[in-house]
Amino acid sequence: MQDLNKLWKIFKDKFTDTGLAKGAFSAPGRVNLIGEHTDYNDGFVLPMAIEKEIVMLGQSRNDRLVQVYDLVYKTKIEFSLDNLIPLKKDTWANYLMGVMDEMQKAGYSLQGANLIFISNIPKGAGLSSSAALEVVTALTMAKLNLLEIEPVEMAHLCRRAENNFVGVACGIMDQYVSCLGQKKYALFIDCRSNDYELIPFKNHDYQIVICNSKIQRGLINSEYNKRREQCKKATEFFAHKLGHKIQALRDITIDEYKKYQAQLPEIIARRARHVISENYRVQAGIQALREENYSAFGQLMIESHQSLKDDYEVSCTELDLLVDLALKQEGVLGARMTGAGFGGCTVNLIEKNYISAFKKSIINEYKKITGIIPDIYVTPPVEGAKVLELR
Ligand code: GLA
Predict the structure, then answer these.
(1) Please, which residues have CB within 8 angstroms of residue 105's CB and are 6 or more apart in sequence?
(2) What is the mean pLDDT of residues 282-305?
(3) Which residue's C-alpha comes closest to atom 11 of ligand 1?
(4) How many Å lie between the centroid of ligand 1 and the Cα of residue 192?
(5) Between residues 342 and 222, the one the model is more confident about
(6) Is the distance from the beta carbon of residue 37 to the nearest atom of ligand 1 less than 6 Å?
(7) Smallest Cα–Cα separation from 253: which of 229, 230, 236, 277?
(8) Rounded distance between C-alpha atoms, residue 313 and residue 226, angstroms
């Protein structure tokens, strides 16, 4: 949690008071417990919002100008709401501009604003700092302009900003959970209907622990798009075999997959197998959490990682190492890579009493092999985007 008084002091240093509405807002990052690379296949995901967040302070202006000071990189940029064009330098600003662009396109009328923001979500670590920045921008601009935007609409708007303005073809998961997360709950999302359900995660004996490999996700855009293409090919194949009820890999059962998989190119068959089996794992996972069967949930996490590693091929040596090391520790029920892959973090389910031993051992072992000291975060599920203060 940030010290708001300190942030307001910085705000006063950077900007002249316009006398208009001001406020402070936050949006969290996320970790996905299970359901990876399923969201853009109309499938199921089960993320939770984490204690790392972006805090934004803002005040309305009387004109169409937006001035933003980024406290992480200590850079200030300025743009007009009438001229929103993606930047080539200071590309972080594209997340803010994209959100404002989509808000205006959706018919919301905006005034300019002075903004500062600070983040403790590691960048490029697969914990959705981009989605958090989009969501906190949307919330700030909505509140400063006295607009009521429902969280689901806000999530879609933010995703469109990332797809259309930033140019990343992400699914809906990250923005959704950053808007709708709740304390003590993971968020089950049906990425076709957009229905969601809060799944209790409040057993005090177990905890989610995130290990940051510190490997920045390389190749991510091109490989992500390649996977999307391969899923599309698989879907077209099954639609051809099974008719037009097949609109996404979500619509294929394991039995249907088994019946036809030999006719698919080997690599496409493996990609499809990951997505189809992962959707089953999410559903089984929800059931396990409802029954407080944490060891069953942990087992599904382990299977998910295998599938991401071998079939979907989005893991990397360091993530596999973190998972292997984790599974050798006492008290660890499950471990898997989380997020898009090719670096970033693993998510682990651990019995609380073993967490400090786990941390020590993972740091030692991982450092011994890779020379890198991993960061480890212990976090409960927290609330999604919120108003911290209105002045
Ligand atoms: C990234 C995307 C999400 C999702 C995951 C993989 O985080 O932003 O929409 O596709 O990868 O599960």
Answers:
(1) none
(2) 97
(3) 340
(4) 15
(5) 342
(6) yes
(7) 277
(8) 11
Q: Give pLDDT tens digits for 174-202.
A: 999 999 999 999 999 999 999 999 999 98
Ligand 1 pocket, residue 173 CB under 6 Å: yes
Fill in the DSSP letter of residue 161: I
Q: Is the CB of 339 under 6 A from ligand 1?
A: yes
Flag whether pLDDT at 28 surpasses 60. Answer: yes
Residue 219 banded pLDDT, cuts 50, 70, 90:
low
Backbone angles phi, psi at 97, to 5 degrees: -60, -40
What residues are labeled active site? 174
pLDDT of residue 24: 98
Pocket probe for ligand 1: among 42, 173, 194, 275, the residue whose CB has the most ligand atoms within 8 Å is 173
Instruction: Please state, in angstroms and rounded to a whole number, the distance separating the CA atoms of residues 261 and 272.
Output: 9
Find the angle CA(20)-CA(24)-CA(26) to the nearest 5 degrees.
145
Instruction: Measure 45 CA to ligand 1 centroid, in angstroms.
Output: 10
Ligand 1 centroid, distance to 12 Cα (angstroms): 37
- Token pair 């601009």 is found at 141
Using a 6 Å cutoff on CB, does residue 134 contact ligand 1? no
| Ligand 1 centroid from CA 78, angstroms | 30
Residues 6 or more apart whose Cβ sits within 8 Å of residue 169:
40, 163, 224, 225, 228
Is pLDDT of 244 > 90? no
pLDDT, tens digit, for every residue of 249-261?
999 999 999 999 9
